[in-house]
Amino acid sequence: MDYVPNREKERREMLEAIGASSIAELFASFTPKLDRPLRLPEPLPEMELKRLLQSLSEKNARFKSMFRGAGAYAHYQPAAVNQLLLRSEFYTAYTPYQPEVSQGTLTAIYEFQTYVCRLTGMDAANASMYDAGSALAETAIMSFAFNERKEVVCLETVHPHYAEVVKTYCKANGMHVKRRLEDVGAQTACVMVQYPNFFGEIEELKEIGEKTHAAGALFVVCVGDATSLALLAPPGELGADIVVGDVQAFGLPVSYGGPFAGFMAVKKEHIRRMPGRLAGMTVDNRGNQGFVLTLQAREQHIRREKATSNLCTNQALMALAATMYLGFMGKTGLRAAATQSYEKAHKVLEELEALGFARVGTLPFYNEFRVRCPVDVKELNGRLLEKGVLGGLQLPNNEWLVCCTELNSEKDLETIVNTVQEMMGS
């Protein structure tokens, strides 16, 4: 408790609220009570321990290819990205509290912000967020600070995990979440839409944005697979007030579910309400170029009761990896990766439809689509797994959410087709 600046009266009130009589009693409730010693193995020599750990790691499934997205996308990562991240000045760099001695970190953040703004068509971006889900939830708090309304419309086609995070943040702030566009009204603080959405479809942003603004609410766009921004119109050009998403698709491996790094970009009138850090470029009194932290809401650090966010740092290393990826790929490389993802997904759908699969939905899609299967999805995924292929995500009603990226080969597609044919033949 020495590190938490609560008064004795506040401590007593918190203890009473949770039903504990003292700090000691609270801590004791978390202490495991066993009537036997822990069943721990005997110590091992280092070489034997390494062999054991190696054998345990080999139990993890290794996929030759993947046809699953749903928020985590397997894209190509230039070898140089991982190699450069091994440099200690990168992986030990943290938060630039002292800008004068953190010029390298601030330069990287500035470049990251620039890439995000160019891709999204927005005016300013911050130094990255924890992930897309928390970034989207932060926009609800920002919207309340803007118009003091307490209803949020998070469309049903937004990633279900993101929607759950939004609900959690809103509940803690006395806000309510609705899920349909028809729910937009005079009490709506913001409307949240995903682009491409959870099912890979490309929503009509301009129409949704016009309805949102007509109600006096903020229009929030959450980007699905961020590589789609190489082909799709930037959300900023389609009426978005705030754009969030995740840079995981920019060269970050899926890695059993992380780490990810979110981003947030806004129109200039919302810069002051944007959580996190913002790096700016300036010139000192000698004419030398320098980088500084600017337009920061210091309440996040020194007056927490006035803070609009609990974000106090950023995913610096992952944001740097994404910046490197975009630098190495360039406009041409990123567009090529996105084009391949788009074309391969449409070819897979064409092949599946020839086998009796029926697409669900009519909107255009990028690299992810939903189909209703003529065979059992669970069994299909099981058979693909036996061949080292991670199949699409199983959805209710025997639907299958399939994703393709530039990493999927013709042979991968043949594996799916052959597996389906085998199942239909048997």
Task: Summarize the model shown.
The chain has 426 residues and is α/β, with parallel strands linked by helices. It folds into 2 domains: 105 residues, Aspartate Aminotransferase, domain 1; 245 residues, Aspartate Aminotransferase, domain 2.
Notes on the structure:
The structure is a single chain. 39% of the residues lie in helices and 15% in strands. It is an alpha/beta fold and 426 residues long. The longest helix has 39 residues, at 316-354. The N and C termini lie far apart (65 Å). The chain is built from 13 helices and 15 strands. The chain folds into two domains: 65-73 and 330-425, Aspartate Aminotransferase, domain 1 (Alpha-Beta Complex), CATH 3.90.1150.10; 79-323, Aspartate Aminotransferase, domain 2 (3-Layer(aba) Sandwich). It has a seven-stranded mixed beta sheet, sandwiched between helices.
Overall pLDDT level: 91
Q: Helical residue percent?
A: 25-40%
* CATH architectural type of the largest domain: 3-Layer(aba) Sandwich
- How is the main sheet built? 7 strands, mixed
CATH first level of the largest domain: which class?
A: Alpha Beta
Distance between the termini: 65 Å
Number of helices: 13
Structural class: alpha/beta
Report the sheet-strand fraction. 5-15%
Q: Give the CA-based shape.
A: globular
- Helix and strand run: HHHEHHHEHEHEEHEEEEEHHEEHEEEH
Number of domains: 2
Q: Tell me the CATH topology of the largest domain.
A: Aspartate Aminotransferase, domain 2
